[in-house]
Amino acid sequence: MSTLTLSSARFPRRFLPVVATFAVFVVTFGAGSIRYENFASGQVAANLFVDNSFLIVLAVGMTFVILTGGIDLSVGAVAALSTMIAASTLNAGWPPLLSVITVLASGATLGLLMGLVIHHFEVQPFIVTLAGMFLARGLCFLISVESVSITEPAFREFAGGAITLPGDITLTYSVVIALAVVLAALYVLHLTRFGRTVYAVGGSESSARLMGLATSRAKVGVYVVSGFCSALGGLLFSLYMLSGYGLHAVGMELDVIAAVVIGGTLLAGGTGYLVGSVVGVLVLGTVQSLISFEGTLSSWWTKIVIGALLLAFIVLQRLIVRRQA
User: Fold this and answer.
1) Cα(148)–Cα(39) distance, rounded to whole angstroms?
2) Which tens digits make up the pLDDT trace of 289-300?
3) What's the distance, CA 132 to chain centroid?
4) CA-to-CA distance for 160 and 158, rounded, in angstroms?
5) In this structure, are residues 68 and 220 in contact, taking their beta carbons and an 8 Å threshold?
6) Residue pLDDT, tens place only, 33-54
7) Cα separation, 45 vs 39, whole angstroms
8) What is the pTM of this model?
9) How far is CA 107 from CA 1, 79, 85, 248, 325, in A?
């Protein structure tokens, strides 16, 4: 009896979804290592970060939003708009730094506007961010209906730059930026008043308000964070693609939501960990790599597997919530 109690104290149930996500990642990556030669190489593991650095940044912003019990359907469209703004301003001769600042400010402003509408008019986040998605996607095609290649030399040089690790493993600068964002977000969520308020709002907004927490600021702030991360993710995507296009990142918001939920963040809010969201992105990347290595399967199998995983983790969340109740 005492052993069981001690075990429960050491391993709270709230960590179970994150542990399950990590287990899925280990199993899928291990299966690939057994089935395919060179799958377990360091470069393949590094490529999970290289190919999904922009998705990691988007997942950071989405985690903030879902922790409050909200949702943001605009992240893919804002990322696409960011690629268009970056491409058009750079090709117009703007300094890269000014172009980057403009992109980030645009994303944060869109997030602020959506957050203000959600809070002050008490409109469902689903509706407001859906409108934001249409707005951002429409603005892309106001800039150009065609794909815009980025020709700015400094930007292309930065995009092609890489860091070489021991064992000839290379990582792009985008990975470094994504990991820096994750570390900064971990600090904000767990070591600041704003982060504690985000969790409190997701747990019970009325209780958080009675405690004297700045719930309004948190509810609006998470959409600013999401808009900023969407814009930064769009910049990383433009580094990856070296172009801006209004049809970039179509459906990416669903991949981001899936990664965050698979990572253990409760859709109802109040429970979740940023590390889980990052592992969720790696799970999606591993599934995609497995299908790519197989070579004979359609890329649509990625969506099928992700859908099955998403359903399984939603059921797991519901079982945990019921048991806690």
Assistant:
1) 35
2) 998 888 777 777
3) 17
4) 5
5) no
6) 999 988 989 999 999 999 999 9
7) 8
8) 0.94
9) 53, 8, 11, 16, 39
